[in-house]
Design goal:
By secondary structure, this protein is mainly alpha-helical. Helices cover about 70% and strands about 0% of the residues.
């Protein structure tokens, strides 16, 4: 979940591009194969977030606080800025 929060923060443009590709004016969805490039870009962005080793320390801090059930807002904000 921590990666998802960071991914949504970092990959906004890729997510927006994918969602726009999938939507139509009538509110229906386009077949996914027509948005393959957008999907790949979004997935690549999320994978880069997960593999970013320079943020491991801040991620671990958020993770440890979350495991105890405490509120980790400040540490999470530090991780998002990393």
């Amino acid at each position: 979940m921590i990666y998802a929060i960071k991914g949504n923060h970092v990959c906004k443009e890729q997510r927006k591009s994918f969602n726009l590709c999938r939507s139509t004016p009538l509110g229906k969805y386009v077949e996914p194969e027509f948005c393959k490039d957008n999907a790949m870009s979004l997935i690549d962005c999320f994978l880069k977030v997960q593999r970013n080793t320079k943020c491991n320390q801040s991620f671990q801090k958020v993770f440890e606080i979350a495991k105890t059930g405490q509120y980790a807002q400040e540490s999470l904000e530090d991780y998002l800025k990393c």
